[in-house]
Amino acid sequence: MNWMFQKREVKPSSSPLLDKEWRPVPWNAKAEYLQFVRGFEPFQPHNDEKNEEQCIRILLHGPTGHGKSSFINSVDTILQGRMTGRALADTIVGNSFTKKYTTYKITKGAHGTFYPFVFNDTMGLEKDKGVLEEDIKLAMMGHVKDGYTFNPHSTLSTDDLYYNRNPSLNDKAHVLVCVVSAARVHLLSQELMTNMRNVRREASDLGIPQMAILTNIDVACPEVDANLRNVYKSKFVKRQMEVLSASLGIPLNCIFPVKNYHSEIAPNDDLEMLILMALKQMIHFGEDFVNDCKCT
């Protein structure tokens, strides 16, 4: 009997998911990561003659409505063990809901004690209506006092009451975090990308480490919405991370996809694990920067 063998054409998989995670996640290590964050203590930089306790300052920036305030609330929720909403956020896409430069401390244990890291929220980047690049740069250098109201048309002047003439190391940003929605990366204008690159370039000149948070991964990808553990299997999410990396110049290993608390009213371990991974890296970067910084 003669057999006819035909070569089958192997078509590329049309599945939206990879066979395995391209970045391993210790999904069952939430308690370990929480222990790290809760055990992180105030410290003194090696060369700080004042022997002053140092706080890690994490400065968030990015386009309007991409989840900066929601990320702060999500971290606060995780560490408080209950839903919080101190950083006011808006679900309507439009003008930036954040108007003032605000420092958010997170309460730790007894009343009056706080975690040794803080978040600074900024007005969103938006054409003609958002924060100016120069104001973000001044904030990085510690020249902006808490409570300053951002003006989309003029930068903070040196004679303003909210201008800090002599910033200490504690006033300066120690980590710069760009926050971008995975569902809207493709909608960002070239002008906005240029703004964010310029801010990143200034941070690099100051020696400040940079990261990016990719929010709304559940909105962007149905497979991730169905199961958060698909985040590093999702081809779409990986592509958005690669686009953001190529556009801003931030290395892929410094970009963390997350889902902020939004509709949930009960704790979600997988959601919290992704946020804790990002938070731990922010703390490491900030501590390294402070210890390496030469106080003048």
Fold blueprint:
Elements: H1 30-39, E1 56-61, H2 68-80, E2 102-107, E3 114-121, H3 133-140, E4 175-181, H4 190-205, E5 210-215, H5 217-220, H6 222-226, H7 235-248, E6 255-257, H8 269-292
Parallel strand pairs: 1-3, 1-4, 4-5, 5-6
Antiparallel strand pairs: 2-3
Helix pairs in contact: 1-8, 2-8, 3-4
Structure description:
This protein is an alpha/beta fold. It has a single domain (51-292), classed as 3-Layer(aba) Sandwich (Rossmann fold), CATH 3.40.50.300. It contains eight helices and six strands; from the N terminus they run αβαββαβαβαααβα. It has a six-stranded mixed sheet with strand order 2-3-1-4-5-6, sandwiched between helices. The longest helix has 24 residues, at 269-292. The radius of gyration is 21 Å and the shape is globular. Residues 1-11 and 90-96 have low confidence and may be disordered.
**Basic shape:** globular
Q: How many helices in DSSP terms?
A: 8
Radius of gyration: 21 Å
CATH architecture: 3-Layer(aba) Sandwich
Biggest sheet record: 6 strands, mixed
Number of domains: 1
**CATH superfamily membership:** P-loop containing nucleotide triphosphate hydrolases
Strand content: 5-15%
**CATH topology heading:** Rossmann fold
Order of strands across the biggest sheet? 2-3-1-4-5-6
Which range best describes the helical content: under 10%, 10-25%, 25-40%, 40-55%, 55-70% or over 70%? Answer: 25-40%
